[in-house]
Amino acid sequence: MGIKKHILVIPGDGIGPEVTTWGKAVLEKIGQDFGHEFTFDEALMGHAGIEATGNPLPDETLAKAKASDAILFGAIGHIKYDNDPSAKVRPEQGLLKIRKELGLYANLRPIMLFDELLDASSLKPEILKGTDILFFRELTGDVYFGEKKRSEDRNTASDLMIYSRYEVERIAIKAYEAARVRGKRLCSVDKANVLEASRLWREVVQEIAKQYPDVETEHMFIDNAAMQLVKNPKKFDVVLTANLFGDILTDEASQIAGSMGMLASASVGDGTGFFEPIHGSAHDIAGQDKANPLASILSVALMLEISFGLKDEAKKITDAIDKTLKDGYRTGDIADANTDKVKILGTTAMGQKVLE
Amino acid sequence: MGIKKHILVIPGDGIGPEVTTWGKAVLEKIGQDFGHEFTFDEALMGHAGIEATGNPLPDETLAKAKASDAILFGAIGHIKYDNDPSAKVRPEQGLLKIRKELGLYANLRPIMLFDELLDASSLKPEILKGTDILFFRELTGDVYFGEKKRSEDRNTASDLMIYSRYEVERIAIKAYEAARVRGKRLCSVDKANVLEASRLWREVVQEIAKQYPDVETEHMFIDNAAMQLVKNPKKFDVVLTANLFGDILTDEASQIAGSMGMLASASVGDGTGFFEPIHGSAHDIAGQDKANPLASILSVALMLEISFGLKDEAKKITDAIDKTLKDGYRTGDIADANTDKVKILGTTAMGQKVLE
Ligand SMILES: CC(C)[C@H](C(=O)O)[C@@H](O)C(=O)O
Ligand SMILES: CC(C)[C@H](C(=O)O)[C@@H](O)C(=O)O
C-alpha cells in the first residue's frame, strides 16, 4: 500500500531552482513506480524571499513548512550581501531561522563514496577507498545563534559561542544510536583545550557514552580532526560535532566524495524533516544548466529513508545514480580531467539520465 | 661581522624536549659556521611548568622570555587534562598567556613543499605541486581570549568570539605587506554570512585592501576555504584569518606538506619573536626517539630570517634539510608507505644528518 505525503519545495537562490527541479522530478517518478501519492507546494526563501517580500523567511513559507511532511530545499545566498558586511537583511537569515523554528537540531551529512568517482577527488584513491562517514552536526545552537553585538562606534563586534547541556545530549543520543547500527565508532570533535563551551560538550558526550558501551568513543580537537580527515578519512565512522565545527568539517569532507555536488544532508529534530544539498547557491554557474543535480536527488533519497521510512525507494535512487555514473555520465564538477572516457552532461541531461 | 643574540629555549611537553634539542644544536652550528654568538637559557611551560611550580607559565619563564631576543618553543599539552574537562589549570593556558603577554598577535605559518615529500601526502602529487602558502593567523584575540562563562548549575557554557578594529588592522597590514613581496594575492577567510565578528573582520580587510591596490584580494567563507584547501591548494598565496579559523586551516594544510612534522611557525608582534613547530606534544611517541625534529629545525630557520634578518643562514638550514631528504632519509611520519627506497631514522639520527 502506497503512502500519502505532502512535500514543500523551497528552491531558494542561485542554482537552487535548477537542482530542486530534478529532486522533485525523481520524487514524482518514485511515487508513480511505487504507488505513493506525493503532493507538492512551493515557497520562497533567502534572496528570493527578500526580493519578493523583504523577508528572507516569509511568514507564508514558514506556515507551509510547518504544514508539510517534509521539505526539499535548494540553496541559499547571494554575492551581493557577501561583500556588504553591513547589510541588515541577508538571505542566510532565512535558513538559520527555519532551522530554529522547526527545531532542526541535528544535521546528518553522510559522506558516501561512489567508486566511479574515486578519481575525481584530489585525494589519492587508496586513501579514499572504503571511506564511509556519517556526520552529526548540531544545527540550532553555538556561535550561530548566540547573541551578536556591535559596539556603538562599530569598532568592536562579537558573537556568543554558547551551549547548554540538553542541546548536546539530544544530538549525542542521535549520533550514538546511529553509531550503534553502523561501525560502532563515534568521534566527538571539540576544542576543549581552549573553549569552555567545548568542555561542556565533552563532559556531556562522556556521560552519554556510558550508556553506549558497545560504541567506541574518541574525542578529538577540531584542528586535529581537520587534519585527520585529509590524512586518513577511513578512520572515521560517526562524527559528532558542534554547529560551526560541523560546517567546516563537512565542507572539507566533501572533497572525499569528489565534489560538493554529490553530497546531501538531512536536518531533523522536533518536527518536519528538511533535506538539502550541502553545496551553496553557486551564482557563478546559476541558470547555465551546469549545476550537478545529484546532491538534490540524493537529498530526496535521504527524505524517503529518514522521514518516510521508504528504504527500497531510497535504494532505487542511489542505484540509479550509481548506474548513471558507471555509464560514464558526469557533470563538469565531477569529471576527472585526466580521462576522456566520460561524457559531460548539463543539469537537465543528467537529471534525465537518472530518471531513465 | 657576527651578531650576538640571546635565545630562550622552552622545550615544553611531550616530544618538545626531543625536538628543541635539535633546533638548538642547529642554531649552535650556524653560530659557529657564520661567526655569530648565540647564548642560550632554558625555561618551563605547560605541563612541565605545572609539575614544577603549579603554574603553566611560571613568572620566571615570562621574565626570561621578555629578556631574550627570540624564543624557541617545543610543544604543549598532556592527555591527562584533555580528558578532564573540569580541570582548572591546563598546560595550554601557558601558551595562550605567553602569546598575550608578549603581544604575539601575528602567527605566520608557511606551507612549504619539499619535492621529495610529494608522495608522503594523502593528496595527489599533481594537486600539490607548486603549492606555496603563507598563513597569517591572528593569535591574541577571537574566541580564544573572549570571556568564558559557566552557569552556576554548570549546565550552560560560553565563550565570547570578539574582535576589535585595531586587532584586525594590524595583522591585515602585516599580511598585505607580505603578499606584496610574494604572489600579490591575499585571501581573507571569515564567516561573514553568519558572524558579526566576521563582518567587522571583512569590513576592516576591505578598507586595508584599498591601500594595497597591487594585491588582489579575495574573501572566502571558512567552510569553503576548508574545502578549497584540499581541492586546489595552489590557488592560495597569502591567507589571512582569525585565531580559531587559522588554527583549523593550518593544521589541515599540514597534510599538504606531507606531515605536521615538517611545519614551523613564527609568532611576532610587539616584541620578542616566538618560534615553534605547529605539531603538538604527541605523548604517544614522546621519549621514544621517533619524533620528527625537522619542524623544530625549520623554526630555527624562521627565527634567523624573521627575528635576526639572517637570510643566508636560514637558507643554509632549508638546503641541509632538502639534501637530507634527497639522500632518502625520513622519520616515520614522512616515510611513504609505498616505497622502500627511503631510510627511516629516529629523532637523533635525523638531527645528526641535518647537522652534517
Ligand atoms: C549558508 C550558511 C548559513 C550555512 C551554514 O553555515 O550553516 C551553510 O554553509 C551550510 O553549511 O548549510
Ligand atoms: C595548543 C593549542 C592551544 C594551540 C592553539 O589552538 O592555538 C595549538 O593548537 C596551536 O595551533 O598552536
TrEMBL record, chains A, B:
Cofactor(s) recorded in Swiss-Prot or TrEMBL: Mg(2+); Mn(2+)
Pathway noted in the entry: Amino-acid biosynthesis; L-leucine biosynthesis; L-leucine from 3-methyl-2-oxobutanoate: step 3/4
Gene3D superfamilies hit by this protein: Isopropylmalate Dehydrogenase
InterPro entries cross-referenced by the UniProt entry: IsoCit/isopropylmalate_DH_CS, IsoPropMal-DH-like_dom, Isopropylmalate_DH
Site feature: Important for catalysis: Y144, K191
EC category name: oxidoreductase
Record keywords: Amino-acid biosynthesis, Branched-chain amino acid biosynthesis, Cytoplasm, Leucine biosynthesis, Magnesium, Manganese, Metal-binding, NAD, Oxidoreductase
Pfam families recorded: Iso_dh
Subcellular localization, as worded in the UniProt entry: Cytoplasm
EC number(s) given by UniProt: 1.1.1.85
Binding residue positions for Mg(2+): D223, D247, D251
Cross-referenced SMART domains: Iso_dh
Keyword Metal-binding attributed: yes
Top-level taxon: Bacteria
GO CC terms: cytosol
One GO BP annotation of this record: L-leucine biosynthetic process
Function: Catalyzes the oxidation of 3-carboxy-2-hydroxy-4-methylpentanoate (3-isopropylmalate) to 3-carboxy-4-methyl-2-oxopentanoate. The product decarboxylates to 4-methyl-2 oxopentanoate.
Family: Belongs to the isocitrate and isopropylmalate dehydrogenases family. LeuB type 1 subfamily.
Subunit structure: Homodimer.
Protein name: 3-isopropylmalate dehydrogenase
Recorded name of the encoding gene: leuB
